[in-house]
Amino acid sequence: MFAASLLITAAGCDGERGATRTQEVADPVRTLGVFMDSVFGLAISPSDPGVVAFVGFGGRPIQIRGYGLADVQTGAENSSTTNVRIASVSKQFTAMAILALVGDDLLALDQSVGAILGEPYFDDITVEQLLTHRSGLPDNEAIWMESWDPNHVATNADLVQWYVEQRPSLLFPPGTEWEYSQAGYNLLANIVEAVSGEPLEVFARRRLFGKIGLESATFFSLARATEIPNRAATYTMEDGEYRVADGHFLNGLVGGDGVFMNAVDYLRWDKAVRAEILVPPELHRRALSPRTEVNDRVNEQFARAFSGLPLSPSTYGYGWFLSESPDGMLAWHQGGWYGVQAVVIRDVDGPLTIGMFGNTDEIPLSMMASLYTAAREFEASLEEPN
Fold first, then answer.
1. Which of 78, 117, 149, 284 is most exposed by smallest CB count within 10 Å?
2. Which residues contact 145 (CB under 8 A, 6 or more apart)?
3. What residues contact residue 227 under an 8 Å CB cut-off, 6+ apart?
4. 81-122 pLDDT, tens per residue?
5. Residue 128 predicted with pLDDT over 60
6. From CA 197, how far away is CA 202, in angstroms rounded?
7. Of the given ranges (43-52, 93-102, 208-217, 306-315), which has the lowest mean pLDDT?
8. pLDDT band at 382, cuts 50/70/90?
9. Which SS3 state, helix, strand or coil, does residue 293 take?
């Protein structure tokens, strides 16, 4: 079993990155770290961009290990304090900002988005329908990729203006079907600003991140660029070489994406969510309970992409996919974007949280299946008699 003495060949750990050696490990925490090195350390070159992988237990960090470089130019290594863009994993933070406004009696989930934003185009869509991807809003990104001036950084204000001016037909009557919508979560950022009077990044820093002492976490818009200490550059592969991918014009949008943070602060966030201290407990529970089914097409995509993980079929809460597994209900989200591969999986009722924040989109999702298996074995080792 996992807690027993384990003979394993692993890429270097404990400050010996790059060395391959066989060692005997008895401590389950150390064993977990050695296993992580054998998965991530052997696959990721120390001279390439890479990933920060982590395991938490009851909100407590068990292992946080960095692999590869946060910045290829400077040689800075990925570590527990590297601030990484986490793409659509950001949605849980946007959802929590909305729930904070609901908990403060400034917003209702059944309110009309059109009434809040003062734009009749959105009249038939509610806040909750944006949270659950049931708004019917057509996607803007595919159109903008073809028609947008890439020298103009797109903003959330541009997004509202585009919908109001173009008035594209809804994909379906709001509330009747499910279709993943990046635009819907970006519009939630507009709602936060309309209701609170503060941009999402300011509101989240004051009402969420600051409340629990998260110093690294921030929503970042390229249109209002701010300095992020210990920031990982993002890289994508072009013609066999890694290229910096930080400057995409859509990186001015926030809500569906945009959070930078490190793994230490993510596990602090996880602890606060588990303690239900950010918003009233009933709202915490709504976020992490199934609010809608996910369509079959997406579930089929998940089954292929997350082979080896019990993540399909899924439902959706607020900012979280939810999947019944042999280990209980799992809440999870993946974020993929130019130069980004991020995934978080956590127990809804149990203590385990795992994740990887990659600063390249070349990180295979199969690594999460290996990490999940190892983390479950670590959990089981804690229950074994001495």
1. 149
2. none
3. none
4. 999 999 999 999 999 999 999 999 999 999 999 999 999 999
5. yes
6. 10
7. 306-315
8. confident
9. strand
pLDDT score recorded for residue 9: 29
Q: DSSP secondary-structure letter at 73?
A: T
pLDDT at 229: 94
H-state helical runs in 91-155: 91-103, 113-117, 127-131, 141-147
Judging by beta carbons within 10 Å of its beta carbon (0-12, 13-18, 19+), is residue 211 exposed, middle or buried? middle
Amino acid (1-letter code) at residue 47: S
Report d(CA 304, CA 204) in Å as an integer.
34
Name the residue with higher pLDDT: 26 or 349: 349
Residue with tokens 């990180």: 363
pLDDT interval class at 24 (50, 70, 90): very low
- Reading the block at residue 193, the tokens are 């600003």
CB of 292 closer than 8 Å to CB of 134: yes
Domains, the chain: 44-382 (3.40.710.10)
Strand partners, 332: 321, 345
The owner of tokens 């797109």 is 154
Considering only CA atoms, which of 126, 110, 103, 82 is closest in space to residue 265?
82
Kindly give the pairing relationship between strand 60-67 and strand 241-244: unpaired
Q: What is the largest CA-CA distance in the chain?
A: 67
Amino acid making up residue 135: S
Cα of 383 vs its chain's centroid, Å:
30
What does the alpha-carbon distance between residue 130 and residue 109 come to, in Å, rounded to a whole number?
10
Quote the pTM value.
0.92
| Pair 336, 354: CB distance under 8 Å | no
- Scan for tokens 């059944």, then name that residue: 110
- Token pair for 293: 């089914």
